[in-house]
């Protein structure tokens, strides 16, 4: 089976209090991610791209409901998993690097302790082994001094270092699929380039499949094989990145390209 992830007709809705029916957030979204491939999911604010990432992890906000479709990961259908099964899968099978590392990390725990805690939640190993795994993950994320970073708190790190630490936490349990939500949005241009280079290196060295969620087509152009373009919760275009960049079919895609300049 070449596809690691297959999403088929995924729909998410937001029930309206005191109003008949529900508002659609995602409607009939379908795509696949091949093993070792990078997929870009792109769209403007309110397009549903972050909601899609959360749906793939079973982390939809309580106000939203999964209205239909399937998510098949490594041959396993995920939408009917119990909370306990989801907790076992997150981090170990599919992991996510969230958009805001500063808010994702606990401010009163060191980076290393938090990554170590993630490993211990999924694997029956000693604390010493979990600490070594945390240091290994920090090294994999391109941090030259993992011991120092592990001993630091999130507020002591720059935005680029926090982003790499967040990626390290996502990699600590050796998942097959990494979802990165707006991984470069708050970074300066040089740091952005380093993060994008890191994704390519992780793909090469680990065989990692990656979904990059972004509003920036430049990020997709530099990193992804294929792209899904979302507008108001609907897929308006998908296919090979090079083809879409040279000959977009959807008006919305053309607008995104024009906005990029």
Explain the overall architecture.
The chain is α/β, with parallel strands linked by helices and 261 residues long. It has a domain at 101-170. The chain contains 11 helices and 10 strands. The chain has a 6-stranded mixed beta sheet with strand order 6-7-8-3-9-10, with helices on both faces. α4 crosses α5. The radius of gyration is 18 Å and the shape is globular. It starts with a strand and ends with a helix.
How would you concisely characterize the structure shown here?
With 261 residues, the chain is α/β, with parallel strands linked by helices. The chain has eleven helices and ten strands.
Could you list some keywords that capture this structure?
globular; 27% strand; alpha/beta; 4-stranded antiparallel β-sheet; 11 helices; 261 residues
Radius of gyration: 18 Å
Helix content: 40-55%
The count of strands amounts to: 10
Compute the average pLDDT: 92
Cα separation of the termini: 39 Å
| Morphology call | globular
What share of residues are in beta strands? 25-35%
Q: For the largest beta sheet, what order do the strands appear in spatially?
A: 6-7-8-3-9-10
Low-confidence stretches: none
Main sheet attributes: strand count, strand direction, barrel closure: 6 strands, mixed
Which sequence of SSEs, written as H and E, runs from N to C? Answer: EEEHEEHEHHHHHEHEHEEHH
Q: What would you call the structural class?
A: alpha/beta
SSE blueprint:
Elements lengths: L2 E13 L6 E13 L3 E5 L6 H8 L8 E9 L2 E2 L5 H7 L4 E4 L3 H4 L6 H12 L4 H14 L5 H6 L7 H13 L5 E5 L7 H18 L2 E6 L2 H7 L2 E6 L2 E7 H6 L4 H10 L1
Parallel strand pairs: 3-8, 3-9, 6-7, 7-8
Antiparallel strand pairs: 1-2, 1-4, 4-5, 9-10
Helix pairs in contact: 4-5, 4-7, 5-7
């Amino acid at each position: 089976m070449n596809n690691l992830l297959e999403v088929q007709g995924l729909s998410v809705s937001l029930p309206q209090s005191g109003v008949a029916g529900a508002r659609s957030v995602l409607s009939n979204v379908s795509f696949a991610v091949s093993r070792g491939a990078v997929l870009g999911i792109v769209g403007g604010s309110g397009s549903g791209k972050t909601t899609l990432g959360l749906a793939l992890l079973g982390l939809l906000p309580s106000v939203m409901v999964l209205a239909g479709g399937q998510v098949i990961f490594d041959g396993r259908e995920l939408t009917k998993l119990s909370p306990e099964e989801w907790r076992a899968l997150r981090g170990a099978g599919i992991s996510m690097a969230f958009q805001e590392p500063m808010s994702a990390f606990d401010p009163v725990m060191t980076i290393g302790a938090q990554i170590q805690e993630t490993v211990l939640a999924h694997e029956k190993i000693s604390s010493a082994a979990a600490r070594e795994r945390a240091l290994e993950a920090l090294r994999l994320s391109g941090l030259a001094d993992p011991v120092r970073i592990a001993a630091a708190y999130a507020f002591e790190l720059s935005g680029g270092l926090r982003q790499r630490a967040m990626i390290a936490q996502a990699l600590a349990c050796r998942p097959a699929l990494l979802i990165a939500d707006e991984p470069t949005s708050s970074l300066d241009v040089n740091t952005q380039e380093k993060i994008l280079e890191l994704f390519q290196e992780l793909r090469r060295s680990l065989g990692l499949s990656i979904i990059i969620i972004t509003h920036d087509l430049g990020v997709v152009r530099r990193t992804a094989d294929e792209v899904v373009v979302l507008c108001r919760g609907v897929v308006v275009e998908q296919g090979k990145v090079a083809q879409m960049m040279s000959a977009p079919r959807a008006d919305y895609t053309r607008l995104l390209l024009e906005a990029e300049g």
